[in-house]
Amino acid sequence: MPGRDPIIGEIERERLALADLVDSMSAEELSTASLCGEWTVHQVAGHLLMPLITSTRTVAAALLRAGGNFDRANDRMTRAVASRPATDIAAALRAQARNRFHPPIFGLEAPMAELVLHGQDLRRPVGLPVAFGEPALRRTLEHLASPRARVGFVPRGRLAGLRFEATDLDWTFGDGATVRGPAASIAYAMSGRAASLPELDGPGVAVLAGR
User: Fold this and answer.
1) Could you give the CA distance from residue 195 to residue 175 in angstroms, rounded to a whole number?
2) pLDDT of 42-88, one tens digit each?
3) DSSP symbols for 143-208
4) To 10 degrees, what angle do helices 134-145 and 183-190 make?
5) DSSP character for 2?
6) Whole-prediction pTM value?
7) How does DSSP classify residue 32?
8) d(Cα 60, Cα 70) in Å, to the nearest integer?
């Protein structure tokens, strides 16, 4: 029931918003280099769809072909899904909006964080507003601040000795030199991305920039 499991409703909201965004993008915007490795904006959208429609058998086969290298398998599977037209990706995101997939060692906070972080990877390079619901931002920040996020989400040692303060919602974490700014910008910086650092202030920003 949505009332007993609100995170599914929040994930649905963000996936539907992403689908609308992808549908609204021009071919030039979709082909723009994203802020996620060598993927384009189109491919990042495909990456967010990929785990929702890829079977366990397909993942196992991709890992086998990649010699057990997850990053290589992930890249190949993402590019395969992203070979679809953007309109098909948007339609599939809508169809899968309430999909409960999450990586084995995480809960549903992981796909939520993926939507917020990868959502910025594709919005920022084309100058689109970085806008997410407050519940999505709060859950993402809580996830990134948790020890579990040191696997795959936050580089080891990145948050040590710092205090993070969101200026657009009531959220703080840590002790030390302050990093202050919008929640989306803080989440992006916590995850190891540098593009949002100019949107933050406080003595801890220089520390983050040096890590």
Assistant:
1) 23
2) 999 999 999 999 999 999 999 999 999 999 999 999 999 999 999 99
3) HHHSGGGGTTTS-TTTTTTEEEEESSSS-EEESSEEEEE-HHHHHHHHTT--TTGGG-BSTHHHHH
4) 30
5) G
6) 0.94
7) S
8) 10
